[in-house]
Amino acid sequence: MSISGVRDRSVNDVDEFCAQLDARAVPVSFLVAPRLTGYRLSDDGHTADWLRTRSEQGDAIVLHGYEAAATKIGRPEFAALPAHEANLRLMAADRVMEHIGLRTRLFAPPGWRASAGTAQALPRNGFRLLASMGGITDLVRQTTARAPVVGVGAGFLSEPWRCRTLVLSAERIARRGGIVRIAVAAEQLRRSGPRQAMLDAIDLTLMHGATSTVYRWKAGRPSFVDAA
């Protein structure tokens, strides 16, 4: 389970949702960008503290871009960047994340789309794992586990039919023994429909025997699973 866009105006909704995940023993991967529109995480001590506490309890912090701003019309940040520009943005984001105590070696681009230049720049900056739309890549071993993301918000539609489709897709993948990657934008969690869809997808996935974990990289062996 991954949640993106946690900030001052959504952290309370996320905290309430995480309490329901805790009751199910489901950890969370938080996709964190240092800057969002009109917002800087470094100026929001409460949210930064909350994320650090969750990380200390076993959740994962995943860098989710630098400022989550489109660099071309209709293209998310990092979706079309050449290696040089991706490198500059990664360095800037890494400095901010280190300063606020949330540095990570995991990366998930906004919109789940990374350019070839971004994929090239990531290991140069010490990143070891890339979570993209179609799979999870171990940047050290250069291996990829194919597994699509199913989600609501942050690049995915949030209409009621989309919520129903997400639940069905997660259940189908779990039934077949695949890697289930469920994602939601924090702002969607104040709405009952998307929130319930997340919980339904998680419950069905667990019913089919899925093991809950977070994005992570281990030196000894590949570890790709991010499941509900």
Characterization of the model:
There is one protein chain. This protein is of the alpha/beta class and 228 residues long. The chain has one domain: Glycoside hydrolase/deacetylase (TIM Barrel). It has 6 helices and 11 strands. The protein has a 5-stranded parallel beta sheet with strand order 5-2-1-11-10. A 4-stranded mixed beta sheet has the order 6-7-8-9, with no helix packed on it. Strand 3 and strand 4 form a beta hairpin. The protein is globular and about 45 Å long. 43% of the residues are buried.
Uncertain regions: pLDDT < 50 for 5+ in a row? 222-228
Strand content: 15-25%
Domain count, please report it.
1
Looking at the overall shape, the CATH architecture is Alpha-Beta Barrel
* Distance, first to last CA: 5 Å
Structural class, from secondary structure content? alpha/beta
Adjacency order of strands in the biggest sheet: 5-2-1-11-10
Task: Name the CATH superfamily assignment.
Answer: Glycoside hydrolase/deacetylase
Query: Quick one: overall form?
Result: globular
DSSP summary: helix tally = 6
Quote the average pLDDT. Answer: 91
Oligomer: single chain
CATH topology: TIM Barrel
Tell me how many strands there are. 11
- Largest sheet report: 5 strands, parallel
Radius of gyration: 16 Å
Which range best describes the helical content: under 10%, 10-25%, 25-40%, 40-55%, 55-70% or over 70%? 25-40%
